[in-house]
Amino acid sequence: MTLYTLPDRFLYANPLKRYSIGYRTQGLIMKRDADGGVTLYLGHASPGAEKESNWLPTPEGRYSAVGRIYGPSEAAMNGTWKLPPLTPVAGQ
């Protein structure tokens, strides 16, 4: 997932110097959920130390998040699997 500011579509400068997040992000070990899935946290404020490994900092204003799939499965290519939508968290 790569984050871009809007309307200019630049990478968002942030204290972590993290402009994208995924298993290909150098030096980052993402935490898996109990069911084996992965939850990404996108937001301006840190989601807390326990979740920061899966956090992509965002600007306070508008932004665009782009998901890319490298070496996709057949399900991703034929549309039976879809990237889950972003879900706002109350209070964020």
Features:
4 strands; mainly beta; two-stranded antiparallel sheet; 92 residues; single chain; two-stranded parallel sheet
Topology (elements, then pairings):
Blueprint: E1 2-5, E2 41-43, E3 55-57, E4 63-66, H1 74-78
Explain what the structure shows.
The chain is mostly beta strands and 92 residues long. Helix content is 5%, strand content 15%. It is built from one helix and four strands; from the N terminus they run E-E-E-E-H. The strands form two sheets. A two-stranded antiparallel ribbon has the order 1-4. The protein starts with a strand and ends in a 14-residue tail after the last helix. The model has no long low-confidence stretch (mean pLDDT 89).
Could you give a quick summary of the protein structure above?
With about 90 residues, this protein is mainly beta. The protein has one helix at about 75-80; strands at about 1-5, 40-45, 55, 65.
Strand count: 4
- List the secondary-structure elements in sequence, H or E: EEEEH
Strand order of the largest sheet: 1-4
Distance between the amino and carboxyl termini: 19 Å
Structural class: mainly beta
Radius of gyration: 14 Å
Query: Mean pLDDT across all residues, rounded?
Result: 89
What's the helical proportion of residues? under 10%
Poorly predicted regions are none
β-sheet strand percentage: 15-25%
Please tell me what the overall shape is. Answer: globular
- Tell me the number of helical segments per DSSP (H or I, 4 or more residues long): 1
Largest sheet: 2 strands, antiparallel
